Transporter
Amino acid sequence: MARFSFLLLAAACGLPLAASAGDDDTISTDRPDFVESSQVVGKGRLQLETSLQWERDRAGGVTARTLTTPTLLRIGLGETTELRFETDGRTVAHAGGATMAGYADTSVGIKWHTADQDGAAPSLGWLLHADLPSGSKALRGSGVRPSLRVAAEWELANGVGIGIMPGVGTDNDERGARRGYGILAATVGRDITERVHGFVELAAPRIARANRGGTQAVFDTGVTWLLTNDIQLDAALSRGLNRRTADLGIGLGLSVRR
């Protein structure tokens, strides 16, 4: 599973497009913001969301630069459920004159869409994932690390949308002891044109006490561009809000649906 993202990218080159230009059904992606969509891809559908992500972090007089290839494969099991495989893929990190390269762990998960928006009640999707110790030795996590998140979305007037995503997760410390953490993020998006959408977001991918790894917090903004009903490009910029989060991040992504 270590080379999972590259296998997915190779597979995407052969994906035929399912929707015609006149079809109102358009791709709905979980990237580039941290808040996931509450929607699933639909029964029998395949959707690949891949990207190139660069991050810079300055701490203690040392500048670290990391390049990753975050990739998500979504497989429609039914009209309300999908199977998910996710990884940060190939990872190359430079810090203090040293270079480390390898493949990140892979996560396996399920998304379940439980409700459409009904007035003030949001559209809801539940995500249960498990990170597996499957990457290169230098990048491999300790044991299986499960997480549970719920994505809530509201579509408002004038092409405005709001999403929030609370959740919980666990990982293991260097001694193998289990430790829990919280997740919370909120995003606001707006259609700029019929095909271009922008967003701003505040996200805390990890909320925990200092002795449990501490809290990470980030502000990010970006745009998506719908090339066809089945192909989307995106770009995003992020700024870390505390010392445990990378100072600067830039991401460019491609999503394809079959």
